[in-house]
Amino acid sequence: MTFHRSLTLSSHKMLALERIPDQIGYLILTEDGAVLTSGGDLENDERVANIISSLVTLTSKVDPKAFPLHDPFEKISIKYKDHCYVVCLSNKKIYVVKRKLPPQTTAIVEQQSIIDL
User: What Gene Ontology molecular-function terms does this entry list (predicted)?
Assistant: First the structure.
């Protein structure tokens, strides 16, 4: 597979994906799941591409009463403890971004006694 760095519409989209805050990987897939471009943690990751493609295909087979075909999803988010995948459809392509999530913080609250005067 050869990539040319001429500034085509596809190049602009790829550059836009690279600028997403906390992005650590991305995929651009065809409707049938073939990898068009990729980078970061998802560079040439056919396994993730197949999983995402299957998930997108599954959404079209979900109960049409609950999820009407004329009202398709805008975004699918898959969240893990330290990262997430965001999947969007646009112009007959599947865009996948893997983002690093900030570490979860827990607040420790000490109970204080209240004294009425």
Answer: guanyl-nucleotide exchange factor activity
